């Protein structure tokens, strides 16, 4: 991935968006005026799409500026794990990544911490074409399952097949990189994992391929946060004010998108890159799916629960990915303070 042209696209999006005050609250737009903004950065996990709407809306609607922040939104330059490494090294302020990977990174000594849960449930899983006749993960024995070069994908499939009564050793795991859709359409594999229900499943179905989706939480995998906001431990210790301001602005961006879904979709489409074009129909469906999943039962946007982190750590330990000595409580910050200003945006 080339940061230069992607960042040019994002900078254009934010410049155009922030100069357009028609959709902004006059109060929010004016609060950041007259004072110097603190420059911070956030590295996305992938190209901008519906799952990033809290950040993109916060930028376009002036919520970051109202919190005193000038946020530089970046793409990973080489691979999706860039955010973890750069934040851990203190070269970037924030990043978005996946909760299980945050635990694994901490086990490797990378000094990061999750400060807010963005998606409260897994989006990953196992997908098979409905016409394959496969009715359960158990029936993947003897079949080829495509995955995107990540060891966690193997752990996910192992757990799900075992929970369904099958033998994961009989599953043929095939590394297809990120060519998950072609791997199915060319019949190279009979199933894929690493494909997200809010993206690949929708793309499959638009191509006329009906998909059967096996959810991880229905086959032995605990509920985990698919996407979290991370920062460096030093930032968390020394600059909690910036962390809290970032989360407040993102919560407002999320609330705005909830009540302005058409405008939120327009924001995504207007700011898309020609190198990573978005499908408006797909992104509209993805927004409808994702927005409710950014809050859980009794859990507001950004909330993190110790039990969820503990269950995720225990699963990774059982799969041999984590040592028992890692404390899941070190993976996230408890009780990050957040203002309640987003409530007004819901009305």
UniProtKB/TrEMBL annotation:
Cite the InterPro entries for this sequence.
NMT1/THI5, SsuA/THI5
What range(s) does the SsuA/THI5-like domain occupy?
A: 49-263
GO terms, biological process: thiamine biosynthetic process
The protein in question is named: Hydroxymethylpyrimidine-binding protein
- Looking at the record's lineage, which domain of life comes first? Bacteria
SUPFAM superfamilies in alphabetical order:
Periplasmic binding protein-like II (SSF53850)
């Amino acid at each position: 991935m080339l940061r230069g042209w992607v960042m040019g696209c994002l900078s254009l999006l934010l410049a155009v968006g922030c100069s357009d005050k028609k959709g902004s609250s006059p109060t929010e737009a004016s609060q950041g005026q007259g004072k110097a903004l603190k420059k911070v950065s956030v590295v996305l996990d992938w190209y901008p799409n519906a799952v990033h709407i809290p950040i993109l809306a916060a930028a376009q609607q002036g919520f970051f500026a109202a919190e005193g922040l000038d946020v530089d939104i970046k793409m990973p330059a080489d691979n999706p794990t860039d955010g973890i490494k750069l934040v851990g090294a203190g070269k970037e302020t924030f990043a978005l990544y996946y909760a299980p990977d945050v635990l694994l990174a901490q086990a490797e000594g990378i000094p990061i911490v999750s400060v807010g849960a963005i998606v409260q449930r897994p989006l990953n899983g196992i997908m098979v074409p409905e016409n394959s006749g496969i009715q359960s993960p158990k029936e993947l024995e003897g079949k080829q399952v495509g995955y995107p070069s990540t060891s966690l994908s193997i752990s996910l499939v192992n757990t799900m097949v075992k929970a369904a009564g099958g033998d994961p050793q009989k599953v043929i795991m095939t590394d297809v990189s990120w060519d998950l859709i072609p791997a199915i359409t060319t019949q190279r594999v009979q199933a894929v994992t690493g494909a997200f229900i809010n993206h690949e499943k929708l793309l499959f179905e638009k191509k006329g391929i009906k998909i059967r989706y096996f959810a991880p939480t229905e086959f032995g995998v605990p509920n985990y946060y698919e996407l979290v906001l991370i920062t460096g431990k030093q930032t968390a210790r020394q600059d909690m004010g910036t962390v809290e301001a970032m989360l407040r602005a993102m919560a407002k961006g999320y609330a705005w998108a909830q009540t302005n879904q058409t405008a939120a979709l327009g924001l995504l489409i207007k700011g898309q890159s020609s190198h990573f074009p978005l499908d408006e129909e797909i992104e509209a469906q993805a927004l409808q799916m994702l927005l409710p999943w950014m809050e859980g039962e009794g859990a507001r946007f950004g909330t993190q629960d110790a039990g969820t982190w503990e269950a995720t750590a225990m699963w990774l330990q059982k799969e041999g990915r984590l040592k028992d000595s890692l404390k899941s409580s070190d993976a996230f910050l408890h009780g990050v303070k957040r203002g309640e200003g987003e409530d007004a945006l819901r009305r």
